[in-house]
Specification:
The complex is a heterodimer of chains A (about 375) and B (about 280).
Chain A lengths: L1 H19 L4 E9 L13 H13 L2 E9 L2 H9 L7 E2 L3 H9 L33 E14 L23 E4 L2 H12 L8 H14 L3 E5 L3 H7 L4 E5 H9 L7 E4 L6 E8 L6 H12 L1 H11 L6 H4 L2 H7 L1 H7 L6 H8 L6 H16 L1
Helix pairs in contact in A: 5-6, 6-15, 7-8
Chain B lengths: L1 H26 L15 H7 L2 H34 L3 H16 L2 H18 L8 H26 L3 H8 L4 H30 L2 H6 L7 H7 L7 H43 L1
Helix pairs in contact in B: 1-11, 2-11, 3-6, 3-8, 4-6, 6-8, 7-8
Classes of the chains: A alpha/beta (about 375), B mainly alpha (about 280).
Chain lengths: ~375, ~280
């Protein structure tokens, strides 16, 4: 027994030493969504290791990247705000960036250290959450569209938001299972402002959702993947990038198609530097690296989300890899993206409004 | 009646093992889908081998589980010996109740309260990253400890207290008597306790989720974070491997247990025969 214990202890210490040795090494702590970066599976580009290699070659100094993941903006926010963890870089979504700027959680970025920032399409500058472009560098963006099974749905019906209310498809419609996105579908349909502070607007949308209730097969988030792939459900709204994930796995008798209703919801996820960073220049160096051609293309191919990086969507290899059809869906021509985005994207709402919306939502779902 | 009870047993087993069976079957699916089985392949297993990030989280999980098991087994055994020696019944039952609390407490409450405590002390020392491997290890030891104590205590009670006394009579020092006599007697309890601690630590998600710090993510936390997109069948492959490893471990421990108790029986019988 003694032997077993001592061997086990030795193993533990060896492992600990292996993880902590290395002398003069810089560390960079990156906090990102799960599955949101190319991680070297199947011999693909391993972003983190490539950065370490590149930095060593460029500056002659070792750097170790600590890379962790989170599932939601709220999850990341609460851990950072509680002071439970500290990171140098995070990838929050738009509304969360606005909130973090307000609460002083972000560091201003020195753009002279990020020459590749010029790769970012001008459509993605001056967005509402960071109007002066001081705190964030966009990483991906996405647009909500309608996914439908063409073997069930009549092509003629595939237009606008009305399809989600079409009684013909009763029992095959899936709706978002969170208040903001579900209300969004009704408000776009009715032409209301999704950031309205007028309770009457929300009441109207709630009526619309109540009318939809008997037609709905299920209220879903991630379950939508399996339901659409298997043909269990025939109509639902989700992000374009996720549509391709479903397309990859659809059953034989399912023919998934996609279109954008108008208006619709947009989101942007961006890289930010967090207050309290140990090495701001290193963080800026990392952001610059992420905008470089190799890293940016590999990540766009991996995540299947649209990139705001000009170098990516003009890259021949990338265009070929994804194919013309995919590119057409992923990068729809949008006139004045910034204007559309600032008008139709969800923004942070006051706690009072959120409570009101959630109360309405609960009532609809109890029905 | 008999057929009814058989059917019932069969249903229970189906209910218990159908999910695992489905997971194993789909880990060999050639396609990504959960609804269509498009052919047998090892594709996800080979992808898993090349997924460094996932393998690192597996390594992290194992480091944490082994360390937590070793620490909590040593501490738990020592605690059990201490508790067993207590004279006052009242204090004994009080201590037993206290050690049971982390076990009966919902994980989420244990997790949040541990996180709050770590952050609170971290703030006191002016740190903005109070969570780390150490805090995670402390938390795991906290919830593993009662399981070890619970397994070791009954063995101590079963043991004849005159055995270590006899050893001391025959010239052992108290420490030596403890290691030579007490420890071998309670060994089965210690091992079961260690195995329980290991499995508890291995599959814990909630507490790890709240107490994990930068740069040390365990497998359950990583899988959870994958839900932004879908969980890939790579994870089914990994779960299948883990399932079989645990299964063989259980089988081995079961067989060796039986072996040991058989041997002990034979020894006892021999002794009895010799006495006669």
């Amino acid at each position: 027994m003694k032997k077993i214990v001592s061997i086990a202890l030795i193993c533990v210490f060896l492992c600990l030493m292996l993880t902590s040795c290395g002398g003069e090494t810089l560390t960079l702590k990156v906090y990102n969504w799960g599955e949101y970066i190319s991680e070297g599976a199947e011999g693909s580009y391993y972003t983190i290791r490539e950065f370490e290699k590149w930095y060593k070659a460029e500056y002659g100094q070792k750097v170790r990247v600590i890379y962790d993941t989170y599932t939601s903006n709220e999850d990341m926010y609460s851990k950072l705000a509680a002071g439970a963890v500290s990171y140098d870089i995070a990838f929050p979504s738009d509304y969360m960036i606005e909130r973090m700027i307000k609460e002083g959680m972000l560091e201003k970025i020195d753009f002279s250290n990020i020459p590749n920032y010029s790769n970012i399409d001008s459509n993605f500058k001056g967005l509402y959450y960071d109007p002066q472009d001081q705190y964030s560098v966009p990483y991906t963006y996405g647009i909500v569209g309608i996914i439908y099974n063409a073997n069930v749905v009549d092509e003629a019906d595939a237009d606008g938001w009305d399809i989600l209310w079409n009684p013909k498809y009763s029992g095959s419609i899936v709706q978002f299972n969170n208040s903001r996105d579900a209300f969004g579908t009704a408000m776009y349909k009715l032409g209301l402002d999704v950031n309205s502070t007028d309770k009457a607007d929300w009441d109207k949308a709630a009526e619309e959702l109540k009318a939809q209730y008997p037609l709905v097969y299920s209220y879903v988030m991630d379950e939508i993947y399996n339901m659409m792939e298997a043909g269990e459900a025939a109509v639902g709204a989700y992000y374009a990038g996720d549509y391709f994930t479903m397309l990859d796995a659809q059953a034989d008798d399912v023919d998934l198609c996609f279109y954008y209703p108008e208006p619709t919801n947009y989101y942007v996820d961006a890289m930010v530097i967090l207050k309290g960073t140990q090495n701001k220049e290193l963080a800026e160096c990392f952001i610059n690296f992420m905008l470089e051609r190799d890293a940016a293309v590999a990540n766009a191919e991996y995540t299947y989300y649209a990139s705001p990086n000009k170098v990516v969507y003009t890259d021949e290899e990338y265009l070929e890899e994804l194919g013309e059809e995919t590119i057409d869906i992923l990068y729809p021509p949008i006139d004045n993206f910034a204007e559309q985005y600032n008008k139709y994207a969800y923004r942070n709402m006051s706690a009072e409004m959120l409570d009101y919306i959630n109360a309405l939502w609960e009532k609809i779902k109890i029905n | 009646m008999k057929t009814a009870s058989r059917i019932f047993t069969a249903l229970v087993f189906i209910f218990l093992f159908a999910p695992i069976a489905i997971l194993i079957v789909f880990s060999f699916n050639d396609a990504k889908s959960l609804s269509v089985f498009s052919g047998f392949s090892f594709r996800w297993y080979s992808e898993l081998i090349h997924d460094d990030a996932t393998l690192e989280s597996v390594r992290n999980t194992l480091i944490l589980a082994v360390s937590a098991t070793v620490i909590s087994t040593v501490m738990g055994t020592a605690a059990a010996v201490g508790i067993n020696r207590l004279r006052s019944k009242w204090i004994k039952s009080a201590i037993n109740t206290v050690t049971d609390i982390p076990m009966t407490n919902p994980d989420i409450i244990t997790g949040i309260s541990l996180m709050l405590m770590f952050v609170f002390f971290g703030r006191m020392f002016g740190r903005s990253d109070s969570l780390s491997f150490t805090t995670m290890l402390l938390s795991h030891v906290t919830f593993c400890l009662p399981y070890v104590i619970l397994q070791v205590l009954p063995k101590l009670r079963q043991m004849d207290p005159s055995l270590p006394e006899a050893a001391q009579d025959l010239g052992c020092t108290p420490t030596r008597a403890f290691f030579k006599v007490t420890i071998p007697e309670i060994m089965p309890g210690v091992i079961t306790g260690a195995i329980m601690a290991f499995t508890m630590s291995l599959d814990d998600f909630v507490i790890s989720y709240f107490t994990s710090g930068a740069g040390f993510q365990t497998l359950p936390v990583r899988i959870y974070n994958m839900t932004k997109k879908t969980v890939t069948p790579k994870m089914y492959a990994l779960a299948t491997i883990i399932f079989f490893v645990i299964l063989t471990m259980l089988l081995i421990s079961n067989f060796s247990d039986e072996d040991a108790s058989e041997k002990r029986k034979i020894k006892r019988n021999n002794r009895k025969a010799a006495k006669k």
